[in-house]
Amino acid sequence: MAKNAINLGELLKDSVASPPQVYLKVKQTMSRADFSFKDLSEIINYDPSLVARILKIANSPVYGFTGKVENVDHALNVLGVEQLNQLILATSVMKDFKDFPKRLVDMKSFWRHSIACGVTGKHLAKYHGIPDPQSFYLLGMLHDMGSLVLYSKLPELSKEILIRCKEDKENLFEMELETLGISHARIGAYLLREWGTPEKDL
Fold first, then answer.
1. Least packed by Cβ within 10 Å: which of 92, 127, 142, 189?
2. pLDDT by residue (tens digit) across 73-83?
3. pTM for the complete prediction?
4. How far apart are CA 101 and CA 109, in angstroms?
């Protein structure tokens, strides 16, 4: 048994209790057969800070667009509706995790890594002919979300695990199971299911 076994329900109490409202509104609008880019733009533009984050990410080197993405309409055209909404979910979730000690993680690097995993996952799925490659974008973007929960709720234990992994060259997943009885992957999956995120997006 793990020496610091944790209760998943208690760990996630008060942690990003529900998915972002903009994400849910866009999803709901997309379910209509007659939705338009204008409908989506109006929802997204209602949150200026979200727009700023989306444009910053869309213009990052990870996407490699030749021209500058200047507004939400342009982002919808170059990214696509599904990918943009998944970006809304991911960036909103990341924004909510900000109270853990900064010594545990460089959020800029963490975010770049997450985006790169999302883009790479989508391209690999396309290359191998896997149905619904778009879902792999969200998987890549949020694959380490459980780590942010641990950094926020258990900073000292997280620090201990990271130090041991680095010094002993141990696998993070295995070290988490040994120490906590649970991994960051399971924490992230549990949280997304609590939100009611469709299985196809997981």
1. 127
2. 998 888 888 88
3. 0.73
4. 15
